[in-house]
Amino acid sequence: MNVRLALTALATIGVVAGHWLAFDFAPVEAQMGVVQKIFYFHVPSAMACYAGFIACCIGSLAYLWTRKGRWDALALAGAELGLIFGLIVLITGPLWARPAWGVWWKWEPRLTSMALLVLMFSAYWVLHTFGGSGEGVRRFAAALAVFATPNIYFVHVAVEKWKGMHPEIQNKGSGGLSPDMRTAFVVCMVVLLLLFGLLLEQRYRMHLQSRLVAALRRRIHRIGGDA
Amino acid sequence: MNFWPTVALVWSKDIRVELRSKDTLVTLVLFALVLTMVFTFGFASDPQTNLRVFPSVMWACVLFCGTLGVGRTFAREARDGAFTALVLSPAHRGAILTAKTLVNLVLTLIVTALTTPILAVMLRVDLTDVLGLVAGQLFLGAAGFALVGTPLAVMAVNARFAEVLLPMVVFPLVAPILIAGVTGTAAILGTIPENDPRPWFQLMLGFDLVYLVGGQFLFDKMVTE
Fold it and tell me: Which value does ipTM take for this structure?
């Protein structure tokens, strides 16, 4: 409990510090200007998004094999957070791309695979949330999450070949970060991943508790029915 | 019971029921015809443009008809409560999945074989020289579609909103097949500069193999009695 409190306090301070570092401490990038600052949030969000989907896949696989409800709760929590951070990535990305590339969107491998990834896990989430509460639905959703994983690779290969015909892919990471920028970037990355971890744990426990409540409610109904 | 006899039994059962009622097949073919009409209204213009849009239209037809067909995979069993019996029977579940996948593949191929020539005629695209290649691609694409879609069609048995959810689930998953199909057909027809379709065949083949193995592994785990 105390560890969680300390980590939450640390994350809170970190979020404020991260903003200060990104907007005030780190210098304005010479070529791209102020828009470059979006990367202090865009890239860590992408990492948190991947982490969420990985948690979802691991949870789903473990759930399919062990049939223990807590793995399913972990998978759902991972998908939810992955989707939130994925949306942040998909919103901040075009905001940067418009001034930098002149277009909001490009069918470039990384963009396309991210968009499809978010779509697949949206399907998982919708299914899990609205598909019903039976074990069949949960297992099906878990299988879907596992199904989606090798797909990421195929999407990437396909889009790379497809767009390989237009050699105009610009890579985002130019590598030329000044030391101050690097400091800001590393702090933002650590803070966002910490935030992700805390949120994941919260959602995971919340799902466990809501299941417990549902089970207790069913029991009360049963006892009430007997009396 | 052995694997392949079970596959043959379930497959021939489904095909026989389908041949007697013909409901899925007739619906699918009619739907495909409507689709080709709609696309032709939208895109048909000069021969050059027709040739360029042909691959996209052809694969869109495969996608829509495939989804419609896949969604009905377990429809009969679910309606009659026979799904539980099928799952509880001593038959290997992988065999049931294989049989259902083959049924879907056959249905999709029949519909594709009917609609592709019609589409080619409507858009005035000459396929005679490249028929073998395009057919091979359609086969690999339809196989990939059936391999991904059939295990997911179990959803229709026990989830709500399944008819809306299934396309939502299947479309992103078959995106690699669509990219490979559309670009590969364009390569065969020579409408894009890089006219070597081989990498696209390889991609589809790899996709098919992964989901062939993956589906067998997962299907057993995802079915509930």
Answer: 0.78
